[in-house]
Amino acid sequence: MINKYKTVMLTSTLPFCITAATVDAQVDDNPGMMLEEMVVTARKRSESLQDVPLAITALSSGDIQDAGIDNVKDIALLTPGFTFAPLVGNESSTPVIRGMSTTIGEPNVGFFIDGVYQSSRNIMDSMLGDTIDRVEIVKGPQSALFGRNTFAGAINFVTKKPSDEFTGQLTATTGNGGHHERRGNVSGPLINDRLFAQLGAVSSNTDGFFTNELTGGELDSKESTIVTGALMFYPNDESEIVARFGYDKTRNGDNPLRFVENNISPVNPTPAPLPLAFQGFQGEMPNYQDGFAVSPGFNKHDNLSASLSAEFTFEPFILTAITGYNELDLKSAIDNDYEARSIRFLRQEIDQQEISQELRFTSNGDGKATWMFGTYYYKLEKESLNDDRFVDEAWALTSALQSSPLAGLLPPGLVNVSQENTESFAIFGSFGYELSERMSLTLEGRWTTEDKDVNALDTNPLTLASGTFVESASFENFVPRFTLDYKLSDSSLLYTSVAKAVKTGGFNVATTTGAILDSERSYSPEESWNYELGMKNTLANGQATLNVAAFYTRWSDQIVRALGQTFAVLNANAGETSIQGLEAELQANLSPALSVSAGLAYTDSSYDEYTFGALAGLGLDPVLDGTRLQFVSEYQANASVQYLRPMSDTIDWKTRIDVSYQSDQSTVQTATAFIESATLFNARTGFETDTWEVTIWVENLFEEDSSVGGAFLTNQGSRYDTANSLVNPAIAPQGFQVFNGLAWSRNEREWGVTARAKF
Question: Which of 128, 280, 381, 529 registers the highest number of CB atoms within 10 A of its CB?
């Protein structure tokens, strides 16, 4: 691990050293070596990335294509301070920016498509189509301008506008694991100078890399179809109206998941005569490549996103209106005992719709003062079904125990049907003023009111006994941001900011383990104050950029995953948390043929005050003061090198290598179990012209074999065996393992060939 760490750190810092020695020597040799200016809209207006006093990583469509980026998880590998934490398997990942992790409930990072908020986590696992123009990752709280769930940051996908000339491209990919992918898009005018259209599609399927030994089939198969489209209309020279839609149909198989046997805390929270049993796992999570045997399940979703944006330019201001609509239909089924026996099964369904409306006025002009004012409305309607129960032989035993004192040892499960509604209204704005030729002050603020209500019905699938939970809550908050920036020179910007962030509370509606007590049904809002000092530098006449930022966050009432009194996994509020860190990003063109980029991040995040009371009953220390947060790497590094060499007047040879490193991460709030540090190498090489290209690529070149993640869940097989031993004298009694570890594995080396035609 030490040698691996030294290697990646050397690889990551090498471009910094090369740049200092090489770029300056070539300042005036080749004006064509200047980096392309990146324009972002993180502050609701178009600005150069280097002029925005925020920590932003932005990737253009060219960057996405050159790196072979397929989804948001790939983006995280090239973004310092940004990681993805898979919750259970490779589905339902949660984003982590600057150590502000969360494991269940609403994420701390807001996802947007063309400024429209997307509540579903499934967008994080969706493929990126060829109609993406750029991706902006804004680090630190963005509650003042972006609003919903941007507690730790925001990610905005900006799609391409239809072109004024007829263009298109077709792409085909084949690779190992039965991977096949087809892409295509066309764009062009329908009415000259007035109406333009764009249409894109992606079809992808993968057989998978892990075998279900119970059925002989593949566990991690994936199948996805994406269709996107846009119409752009110019009523006149001062107006623009764009209608967009996207449809994502995904059908995935099971995840390769296995229980890890407990190895710590020999206690038993169940009554005698049960013997002691280990109650947790401690140490490095193993990475299983085989031995998976589960009853077949699936994960499928249909996601529709649509938006209508209109922009009207007037002399004193620009009026922008954005209407958004999202619809999600999700169905999943998993073998909830994660073993060959058919003991427990979980079926989930989600049907939700959300609408949003943003209206804002933005100053138009180059005066000393800039301003923006807007309103925002959001409504979410969600219907859910969670059907979790013992089945087959375990169901028979459950039925037999219901009239005995042992009924609680093997509860039949829970069928939860719920309706949840969220309605929110906000007023937001910003005001910026040039205090001097070099100094500017920006004030931002957002006032939000939000109403949530839930109507849930819990049913015992054996007795059909039921109970309801009906509740509502209202939240109101104001979040400000203060930013002061100073131009040290025409190419260097120094800035500092102070920002408050708030994420509203909510309800614990359903759980897959244990029952939720009335006192555990709700949790309070969380808030933070964030302080940042950063510097952005443009070097060598535009041939390189070097951006650095330091931050400190004080986090109160953090919403965390916790165990209830009946071992239900639910949301609860922790005490205080402190996070501090450093980030640096470099981009440079070292020659007309050679470009490099690199990133470094250090994050120190730990609980200041947090008592996890349920741990005491498991023989664990409930006081977690000083414990590092889950799914947070202390160190991250990434580096990319790209080389382009002309082979003839029309053909170029392009080669690229990407390296990413993450130090170890805790998988549980006790920090007793962890996933090992990981270094990933991806490589691509091929030939291209103005009309076609062929690329050979490989991911995880050296077959990094650390586990991807882990979780702690109740071992349903152990629960069944414990109950069975008490009613069957022929079976030796065994203790009930309450808190087993669940591990999932990393894919092996992936490789393939991609061919693309442009017209």
Answer: 280
The DSSP code sequence of 266-287 is EE-SSPTTSPPEEEE--EEPP-
Q: To which H or E segment does residue 239 belong?
A: strand 239-252
The DSSP bridge partners found for residue 421 are: 381, 453
Residue 289 in domain: no
Is position 294 within any domain?
A: no
Residue pair 379/422 in contact (Cβ under 8 Å)? The answer is yes
Any residues with CB less than 8 A from the CB of 311 and at least 6 apart, and which? 239, 240, 241, 318, 319, 320, 321
Token pair, residue 553, equals 């966050």
Taking only the tens place, the pLDDT of each residue in 370-404 is: 999 999 999 999 999 999 999 998 999 999 988 88
Separation of alpha carbons 47 and 26, rounded Å: 28
Q: What is the pLDDT of residues 115-151, one digit of tens each?
A: 999 887 666 666 677 888 999 999 999 888 888 889 8
Which CATH number characterizes residue 554's domain?
A: 2.40.170.20
Nearest-angstrom CA–CA distance, 40 and 316: 22
Residue 81 burial (10 A CB sphere; 0-12, 13-18, 19+): buried
Q: Are 393 and 364 in contact (CB under 8 A)?
A: no
Q: What's the domain range around 575?
A: 2-284+302-758
Residue where the block lists tokens 């309801």: 468
Its pTM stands at 0.89
Task: Answer yes or no: is pLDDT of 682 > 60.
Answer: yes
Mark 138-163 as b/e (b = at least 16 C-beta within 10 Å). Answer: bbbbbbbbbbbbbbbbbbbbbbbbbb
| DSSP-assigned letters across all residues of 410-431 | S--EEEEEEEEEEEEEEEEEEE
Maximum pairwise Cα distance, the chain: 87
Whether residue 320 is predicted with pLDDT greater than 70 in this model: the reply is yes
**290 within some domain:** no
Amino acid of residue 268: N
Give the chain's domain count.
1
CA distance linking residue 599 with residue 426, whole number of Å: 36
In this predicted structure, the answer to whether residue 42 has a pLDDT above a threshold of 80 is yes
pLDDT computed for residue 32 by the predictor: 66
Contact 629, 577 (CB under 8 A): yes
CB of 125 closer than 8 Å to CB of 653: no
66 backbone dihedrals φ, ψ, rounded to 5°: -60, -40
Does any domain span residue 733?
A: yes
Residues 726 and 719 sit within 8 Å (Cβ to Cβ): no
Mean pLDDT is lowest, of 213-217, 348-352, 581-585, 686-690, for: 213-217
Are 417 and 457 spatial neighbours (Cβ–Cβ below 8 Å)?
Answer: yes
Strands 109-113 and 153-159, by their bridges, are parallel
Other beta carbons within 10 angstroms of residue 465's beta carbon come to: 9
- Residue 19 pLDDT: 42
Which pairs with CB-CB distance under 8 Å and at least 24 residues apart come from 490-495? 491/537, 491/538, 491/539, 492/535, 492/536, 492/537, 492/538, 493/50, 493/51, 493/53, 493/535, 493/536, 493/537, 494/534, 494/535, 495/53, 495/54, 495/532, 495/533, 495/534, 495/535, 495/536
pLDDT at 497: 97
User: In whole angstroms, how far apart are CA 58 and each of 23, 37, 42, 134, 158?
Assistant: 22, 11, 10, 7, 11
Lowest mean pLDDT among 202-216, 234-248, 516-530: 516-530
**Secondary structure of residue 122 in the 3-state scheme:** helix
Q: What is the pLDDT of residue 21?
A: 41
